[in-house]
Amino acid sequence: MNVEIHPSWKPFLQTEFNKAYFETLIDFVKHEYVNETCFPPENQIFNAFNRCHFEDVKVVIIGQDPYHGIGQANGLCFSVNQGIAHPPSLINIFKEIEKDVSIPYPKSGDLIRWANQGVLLLNATLTVRAHQAGSHQKKGWELFTDAVIKLISTNKEGVVFLLWGGFAKRKEKLINTAKHHVLKSGHPSPLSANRGYWFGNKHFSKANLLLKQKGLKEIVW
């Protein structure tokens, strides 16, 4: 398996690629993809980076691990391929967008349109075995994606980090909050959303206001 990642990220991540843990991780992932059904497709594992280049990153959304159903995951957190039914969390994301910024509920759950505007849709774990949630956790991916969050924090300014749920909120310690914006709320999953921890967070309008204040183009959610 080749690490096919957009050249804009390579100067910042090459040291990670050379570390022993990353080589072990890639060996594990190669073995899994040969012997098991895994997601996303191998050529989309680094899709978040290939669709959102380093210099374009304005907003970071952090997920946990990819969807593990057939045809769902496409390498962008919370995103599913065109024509795939929207999972519950994504439904609640779109409902909040509809209320918050008056954008109609979309037909497609493919969030590539966000990535193309500078939203890094980063799962903490980039691969998963089919129908086995969390099956590739604690194999090294979290070390890599934590390094990604740190390098964005160190090398950029004014990025808006959207941390949804307890898992994502724990990543705040990797972010320099003196130079970046962190918006936190409950997770969009039904369990959290139905308890009142998600709806009404207005993260989409708040993120756009912060971008506008910095003179940056707002995201068309």
Automatic annotation (TrEMBL):
Q: Where in the cell is it found?
A: Cytoplasm
Q: What is its main location?
A: cytoplasm
The entry's keywords: Cytoplasm, DNA damage, DNA repair, Glycosidase, Hydrolase
What Gene Ontology terms describe what this protein does at the molecular function level?
A: uracil DNA N-glycosylase activity
Q: Which positions are catalytic residues?
A: D65 (proton acceptor)
The text of the family note is: Belongs to the uracil-DNA glycosylase (UDG) superfamily. UNG family.
Q: Which NCBIfam families match?
A: PRK05254.1-1, PRK05254.1-2, PRK05254.1-4, PRK05254.1-5, ung
Cite the Uracil-DNA glycosylase-like domain residue spans from the record: 50-211
UniProt protein name: Uracil-DNA glycosylase
